[in-house]
Amino acid sequence: MARILEQARWQGNTTVTLNFKLANREVFTSLDKLLKWFCVSVGKSLGLSNQLADYWDEILGSKSNSTDYFENYLLAEIDSSLVLGLDEVDMVFQYPEIASDFFSLLRTWHEKAKYGDRRSYIWQKLKLVVVYATEDDAWLNLHESFNVGLPIALPEFTQEQVQDLARCYGLNWDADQVAQLMSLVGGYPYLVRTALHHIYYQDFTLEQFLPKSATQGRVYGEYVGRQFLKRQQNRELYTAFAQETSSPIPLELDCL
Q: What is the three-class DSSP state of 33?
């Protein structure tokens, strides 16, 4: 996302990054609160004051109000196109009662740029970059309301790609060292990058990071905790996970 936005700025676009982790928990208690936070946050990043009082009509509803706010205020106030990067969108997945409406609204904005009416040119100024992780099952529902645009998936790294990334960190690793790391974390981009980051900053060496070391708990404690919590929330998945990890041989499990 950072590289996309950098390229957009180079082409003369205005860019804004909005990280959903900055929103307080109460923001996600209703669609109205989420969209108000969304509109004001984007406006603040553009250097525009909060004008919600002039555009928010309770009769029309929050989706219509936020559309009006963008169309007649935020987009109208800037001369260039706006490339809006939405980071940590996974936060919205945790609130399915509002997630569907939020993503269907983004889809509507995308479609409005293609209507060919007198307001379409305003919406052609808005470009969205939506970043989310697919490790959460809830992301599947996203495609029902937001299956537009160009999806860019980040697959697992190959051994050659991990070796190239290690070189970017100034680590002159051979194939055996790369294989040792991948024997623990595979090619999962987040896990690979996190390990290389810590090794580069000399928090520990590769040998200290390998199995039978307590180092992984320091590095991946939060990640493992999130995965454990997700499995606890799905009883069937939790049971299957417990069976698989405690068995000395591979198990064939029914589809969940």
A: helix
End-to-end CA distance of the chain: 33
Q: Could you report the per-residue pLDDT of 68-87, keeping only the tens digit for each?
A: 999 999 999 999 999 999 99
Instruction: Supply 84's token pair.
Output: 């809006």
CA distance 145 to 56: 24
> pLDDT tens-digit profile of 150-187?
778 788 999 999 999 999 999 999 999 999 999 988 99
DSSP assignment of 135-165: SSGGGGGHHHHH--S------PPPHHHHHHH
pTM beyond cutoff 0.85? no
Whether the CB-CB separation of 50 and 70 falls below 8 Å is answered with no
73 membership: H or E segment, kind and range: none
Identify whether the C-beta of residue 37 lies closer than 8 Å to the C-beta of residue 6: no
| Residue 124 structure tokens | 């052609």
CA atoms of 236 and 47, how far apart (whole Å): 49
Which one-letter amino acid corresponds to residue 227?
Q
Structure tokens at 182: 């991948």
Instruction: Give residue 186's Cα distance to chain centre.
Output: 21
256: helix, coil or strand? coil
